């Protein structure tokens, strides 16, 4: 089975984003960028399936600027075999990404697609579900456990009240939640080897996908700031404050 | 505008997140509520939806295919209904986040996720970058597909309405997926996302026993839901459905008490809209104190039991 893993280059999760003064967006100039943390988990899961003999090839794909090639190299250093970069300098919305991924899905015919559950920049949580819809395949979102059992993928999902397990007919689309696994660090030899692995560069037009945004961002602003708080000196003072709130029966 | 709300229900009643989503929908226009499910629980939930103030009509799809809210089946049920509706609103719960984008793609429209406010018929605000920025977006799509952050809208009144309930037959089982089983984390505490008071613990709690020994009595005393940071969940102190943050649950209680939580941006994304935040931490430089209304710099292992006993 071939596994397709879409990855996204995003602002590093440790960086506190700064809203631009003109309200046009978040300032990404000279900010550290990394692979979206959920996508690292998706790559790790694909590599583990391959190591367990459940997959022959792992193809990673990214839609983004030329620098997204670095993200693809990171994924190949973790164990992916080859990469596809769909290069564009536009901001591409989940629906357009899903359409590009659908075309890649049809060309590559993977048995499984593993995505991250959401990207930490737009926080949309849509692409995997949209890809599943467009390909007409079942979806296992927010996966914390994934097993291949014959012609089915068994996916344990993190849902609001606990966990639920569903069985999906393959090919299936799975999105990774945080607890699916602990992604590995790429070793130096693997980073060197990854430089020799192939990246096939394409453009959205190659897939006939129009990436013009459907939503217009009118402005981006800072969230309301909270008024400065106070420090109390003792538990007794804190008790008095809580009692004043009337939350104690 | 005609708005369709996908109800999230359980045990024959609507979840609070659905009532909040109905409030959002009433800001757009006429409201129809879709209850998909199976058996008596679904029909009771439909009756409950009919009582909700502001609801014009309730559609009930009672079929084994919808009992577990599998996305493949429920999305296929919703898509034809969008011929006669202009907007779909789902609560931004694990269910809503699972189903809404599938519907959006089938309709070939972009979804607006996690709507915080409705600024106009087609203009919405939503958080990006873990809530560190708020984007105002305008959709010119033929159909609106929105997921709604429950803590940002007041709950619709559960009584006062008298909407008719119509039965609906959908396409049934798409045959792509099946439900195998679930592990509910049974709890008689208030639901985390709708609790008035939340007591949360972090990595500093050391282990599951200590977490329970320190956090549970305080939560009991305040009739609070129990939350946790990702560090506490990953370390196995408590189940992941207690995680508060960008990747866990978003809460906005009256009172949030953060015990031994440093306040990483991913955690703050889940709780910084709480009305009052109390932080108890021994590190005076912990970022949590920057958002806390009331802070206490103290050793949690002595301060929290003392607090519990004095309340």
UniProtKB/TrEMBL annotation, chain A:
UniProt GO BP: carboxylic acid catabolic process
One of the record's GO molecular function terms: electron transfer activity
Pfam families assigned to the protein according to its UniProt record, in alphabetical order: ETF
CDD domains reported in the protein's UniProt record: ETF_beta
SMART domains linked to this entry: ETF
Record bears the keyword Electron transport: yes
Cofactor(s) named in the record: AMP
Classification via PROSITE patterns: ETF_BETA
Keywords associated with the record: Electron transport, Transport
Domain of life, per lineage: Bacteria
Residue span(s) of domain Electron transfer flavoprotein alpha/beta-subunit N-terminal: 23-211
Subunit: Heterodimer of an alpha and a beta subunit.
Function of the protein: The electron transfer flavoprotein serves as a specific electron acceptor for other dehydrogenases. It transfers the electrons to the main respiratory chain via ETF-ubiquinone oxidoreductase (ETF dehydrogenase).
Family: Belongs to the ETF beta-subunit/FixA family.
Descriptive protein name: Electron transfer flavoprotein subunit beta
Native source species: Croceibacterium mercuriale
Automatic annotation (TrEMBL), chain B:
Annotated GO biological process: fatty acid beta-oxidation using acyl-CoA dehydrogenase
Cofactor(s) in the UniProt record: FAD
Molecular function GO terms recorded: electron transfer activity; flavin adenine dinucleotide binding
Positions annotated to bind FAD: 203, 229-230, 243-247, 260-267, 281, 299-300
Keyword Nucleotidyltransferase carried by entry: no
Alphabetical list of Gene3D superfamilies matching this protein: HUPs (3.40.50.620), TPP-binding domain (3.40.50.1220)
Pfam families linked: ETF, ETF_alpha
Cofactor binding comment, as recorded: Binds 1 FAD per dimer.
Keyword Flavoprotein: yes
Keywords from the UniProt entry: Electron transport, FAD, Flavoprotein, Transport
Electron transfer flavoprotein alpha/beta-subunit N-terminal domain sequence ranges: 3-183
Function summary: The electron transfer flavoprotein serves as a specific electron acceptor for other dehydrogenases. It transfers the electrons to the main respiratory chain via ETF-ubiquinone oxidoreductase (ETF dehydrogenase).
Family named by the database record: Belongs to the ETF alpha-subunit/FixB family.
Name of the featured protein: Electron transfer flavoprotein subunit alpha
């Amino acid at each position: 089975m071939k596994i397709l893993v879409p990855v996204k280059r995003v602002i590093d999760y440790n960086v506190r984003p700064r809203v631009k003064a003109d309200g046009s967006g978040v300032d990404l100039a000279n900010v550290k960028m990394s692979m979206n943390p959920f996508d690292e988990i998706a790559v790790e899961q694909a590599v583990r399936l391959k190591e367990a003999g459940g997959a022959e090839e792992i193809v990673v794909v990214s839609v983004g600027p030329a620098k997204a090639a670095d993200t693809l190299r990171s994924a190949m250093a973790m164990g992916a075999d080859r990469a596809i970069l769909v290069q564009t300098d536009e901001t591409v919305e989940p629906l357009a990404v899903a359409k590009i991924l659908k075309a890649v899905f049809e060309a590559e015919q993977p048995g499984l697609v593993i995505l991250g559950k959401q990207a930490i920049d737009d926080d949309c949580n849509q692409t995997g579900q949209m890809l599943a819809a467009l390909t007409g395949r079942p979806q296992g979102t927010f996966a914390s456990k994934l097993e291949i059992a014959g012609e089915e993928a068994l996916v344990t999902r993190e849902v609001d009240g606990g966990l639920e397990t569903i069985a999906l007919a393959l090919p299936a689309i799975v999105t990774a939640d945080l607890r699916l696994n602990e992604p590995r660090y790429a070793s130096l030899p693997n980073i060197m080897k990854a430089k020799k692995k192939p990246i096939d560069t394409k453009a959205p037009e190659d897939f006939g996908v129009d990436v013009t945004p459907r939503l217009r961002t009118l402005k981006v602003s800072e969230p309301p700031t909270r008024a400065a708080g106070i420090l109390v000196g003792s538990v007794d003072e804190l008790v008095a404050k809580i009692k004043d709130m009337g939350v104690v029966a | 505008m005609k708005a369709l709300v996908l109800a999230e229900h359980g045990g024959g009643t609507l979840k609070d997140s659905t009532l909040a989503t109905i409030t959002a929908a009433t800001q757009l226009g006429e409201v129809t509520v879709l209850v998909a499910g199976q058996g008596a629980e679904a029909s009771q939930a439909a009756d409950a939806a009919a009582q909700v103030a502001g609801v014009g009509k309730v559609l009930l799809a009672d079929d084994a295919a919808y009992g577990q809210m599998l996305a493949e089946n429920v999305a296929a049920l919703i898509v034809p209904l969008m011929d006669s509706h202009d907007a779909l609103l789902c609560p931004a719960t694990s269910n809503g986040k699972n189903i809404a984008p599938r519907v959006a793609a089938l309709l070939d429209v972009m979804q607006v996720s996690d709507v915080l406010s409705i600024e106009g018929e087609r203009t919405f605000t939503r958080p990006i970058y873990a809530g560190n920025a708020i984007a105002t977006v305008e959709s010119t799509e033929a159909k609106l597909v929105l997921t709604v952050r429950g803590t940002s809208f007041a709950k619709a009144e559960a009584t006062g309405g008298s909407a008719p309930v119509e039965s609906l037959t959908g396409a049934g089982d798409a045959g792509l997926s099946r439900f195998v089983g679930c592990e509910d984390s049974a709890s008689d505490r208030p639901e985390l996302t709708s609790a008035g008071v939340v007591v949360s613990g972090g990595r500093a709690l050391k282990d599951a026993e200590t977490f329970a020994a320190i956090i549970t009595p305080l939560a009991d005393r305040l009739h609070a839901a129990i939350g946790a940071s990702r560090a506490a969940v990953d370390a196995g102190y408590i189940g992941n459905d207690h995680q508060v943050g960008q990747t866990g649950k978003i809460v906005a209680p009256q009172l949030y008490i953060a015990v031994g939580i440093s306040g990483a941006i991913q955690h703050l994304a889940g709780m910084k809209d709480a009305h009052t935040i109390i932080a108890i931490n021994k590190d005076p430089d912990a970022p949590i104190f920057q958002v806390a209304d009331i802070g206490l710099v103290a050793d949690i292992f002595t301060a929290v039991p003392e607090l519990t006993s004095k309340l």
